[in-house]
Structures are given as C-alpha cells and as structure tokens.
Amino acid sequence: MTSSAAPTSTGRPARRFDWQKLLAPAVLVALYAFFAIFSRNFFTLDALVNILNASYFIGFMAIGVTFVIITGGIDLSLGTTMICAALLGAMAHSSWGWPVWAGLCLSVFVGLVIGTLNGLMIAFLKLPPFIATLGTQMMGMGFGAICTKVMTMRFPTYGSPDGLFKYIFYKSSASSAMPGFPVGSLWLAGAFGVAWVVLNRTKFGRYTYAMGSNYEATRLSGVKTQRYLMMVYALCGLCSGFAAIFYGAVYTTIIPSTGNGLEMLGIAGVVIGGTSMSGGTGTLIGTLIGMFVMSVLKQGLMLMGLQQHWQTFLTGAVVVGAVLLDNYRVRRSNRA
User: Fold this and answer.
1) How far apart (Å, rounded) are the C-alpha atoms in residues 42 and 45?
2) Which CATH number is 245's domain given?
3) Range with the lowest mean pLDDT among 8-12, 103-107, 204-208, 239-243?
4) Range of the domain at 296
5) Is residue 14 situated within a structural domain?
6) CA diameter of the chain
7) What does residue 151 show for φ and ψ, rounded to 5 degrees?
8) Sign of CA dihedral 317, 318, 323, 324
9) How many CB atoms lie within 10 A of CB 173?
10) Does residue 8 belong to any structural domain of this protein?
11) What is the pTM of this model?
C-alpha cells in the first residue's frame, strides 16, 4: 500500500498540502476580476453592497445545509421552508396584527418545525433524505399558500410605522443615492461565527463529522446517532427560518407557491466551498467563500445584461464543475 505522505527526517509523515482548499478562493478572486474588467459598474461600492445584500438569505441556508451535507445527507426543502416561514411571519404581522418581532419569531419557529419533521422522518423512520425532504419541499410550498389563501404577503417597508425592521435587518439607508451600510452582513458574520464554534468546538460538531464519515461505526461506538441526526436537520430548518427574516427584509414582498429552486443557491455555495457530497468533510469557511462566489456570479451576470436563464445555466455549470472536482479528490484519496 502506498502512503499518502512521505516520511521526514524525524520519522513523521509529511503532510501534503490540500490544493483544493485554494480552489474556492481562487474562483472567487477570478470571478471578481473578470466582472470588474468586463462588466459595467461592477467595481463600485454600490455593486459590493448589492453582493452583500444578495448573500443574506443564501448564507443562512448555506450554514444549515453545511451540517446536513457533512453527514452525507441533503435537504431539498430549504427554499420552500424559507418562503413558507416568511409568508406566515408576514401574515401574522399584516393580517393578524401581531408585532413585527412576534411575526419574526413565528418565522423562525416554522423553520424549526419543518426541519425537525425532516429529522424525524430521516433519523427515526429511515426515509432517504432525498425523498423525505422532497416531500416536505412540496408540503411547505402548499402549506404557505393554503394559510395565506394564495395572497401575497408583505413585510414592513421604509417609512412605514414598523420600518425599523428594514434598518435592523437590511441596510442603514433608505435613500437610492446612498448605498447604506449592509447591516445584514453583521448578522451573517455573527451567525457564521456561532456555527463555526458549534461545528468545530462542540460534541455535536464532532458527531456530525463522525456520522458523515461512517454512520454505522459511530452508532456502534455508543453515540445516539438518531438523536444527533435529527438535531442536524432541525438546525438546518432553524437556519431556513432565519433566512426567511432576511429574505423578507431584502425583498419585502413574499409570493405564495414560490421558493422551489432557491435551495440550490445554498447547496451550490456549500458544494463550491469544498464540502463533499459523500459526507465526512467540509468547512464553514469554505461555505462562506462558496456563498460569495454565488452572489458575485449573480450580480456580475446581471450587470453584464444576461437574462435570468443564462444566470441559471452558468450557475449550474459551476456547481457541476465543483462536484466533478470533489469526485476526483475522493477517487485520489481512495487510491491512496
């Protein structure tokens, strides 16, 4: 058997540098340089703020699904869970007369409930993650439309009595002449910091990696894998609930029966960031970079005047390339 690292003079194996860790940062820098050269008004403060604004809800979805993919699973209900949670939160405020903060808490709770449902079906009822989350994807989309009677819901806007909501979760200026400070970026940075600690410094994080590397061996070692796997999907749903808040802050108008396909933005950011679809490996730093790759790609293509279907096509091509590179890395590791 060949060793993956040659011994040094001290007798210890020399570690090979994982060049794949530089792939996502290199793609981000290359994309930014490309759009700065070939796209109008890309290398401006306005464009940077727009990139940050477009990354809020993608970032929260990506945080949650990073844990899921590390376990070797998948969550296809991210997008519709987010929209369903946003619809119910906005309806609680605009139709039921709840305070804004109560509507936001409802959004987070709805996301947590759907995520916990996913976890119960996958961990205890042994449904494949693809099937379970595909079912809740459609259920979430239909449930939001049923509750709102297929009526568009709206969050408070600038200048309204509850317009402070926009200043707290979106940006600090309502003027079109000033880009305003992207307040949501502070929330996103804080969420990534908390998630990094959970993934890298807690028992829950260690078991997340262990389940992705070898679920059966982890179970036989005495870990209550069913409980922890359910917690992983509940955490993913919780993050989708938080994503609903920022989606509502950025776009204000929430349309029922939508959200299908938005989950791919979060999943794509995770895959581009180097998290393996086979489970067991992945970092939140890589997810953060992958998320910005998605935001830069979206904003740059828009400024170049390409239509939405071109943006979707090129985004899909980037995801396919990232998965192919991950498969190549796994095959090399297996040969070693």
Assistant:
1) 8
2) 1.10.3470
3) 8-12
4) 22-28+40-326
5) no
6) 73
7) -105, 140
8) positive
9) 16
10) no
11) 0.90
Could you read off the pLDDT of 251-284 as tens digits, one per residue?
A: 999 999 888 888 888 998 898 888 988 889 899 9
3-state SS of the chain is CCCCCCECCCCCECCCCCHHHHHHHHHHHHHHHHHHHHCCCCCCHHHHHHHHHHCHHHHHHHHHHHHHHHCCCCCCCHHHHHHHHHHHHHHHHHCCCCCHHHHHHHHHHHHHHHHHHHHHHHHHCCCCHHHHHHHHHHHHHHHHHHHHCCCCEECCCCCCCCCHHHHHHCCCCCCCCCCCCCHHHHHHHHHHHHHHHHHHHCHHHHHHHHHHHCHHHHHHCCCCHHHHHHHHHHHHHHHHHHHHHHHHHHHCEECCCCCCCCHHHHHHHHHHCCCCCCCCCCCHHHHHHHHHHHHHHHHHHHHCCCCHHHHHHHHHHHHHHHHHHHHHHHHHHHHC
Q: Is residue 10 part of a domain?
A: no
The number of distinct structural domains making up the chain is: 1
Q: Is residue 268 part of a domain?
A: yes
Q: CA 49, CA 179: separation in Å to the nearest integer?
A: 7
Tell me phi and psi for residue 253, to 5 degrees: -90, 125
Per residue in 133-192, pLDDT (tens digit) is: 999 999 999 999 999 999 999 999 888 888 888 889 988 776 555 567 889 899 999 999
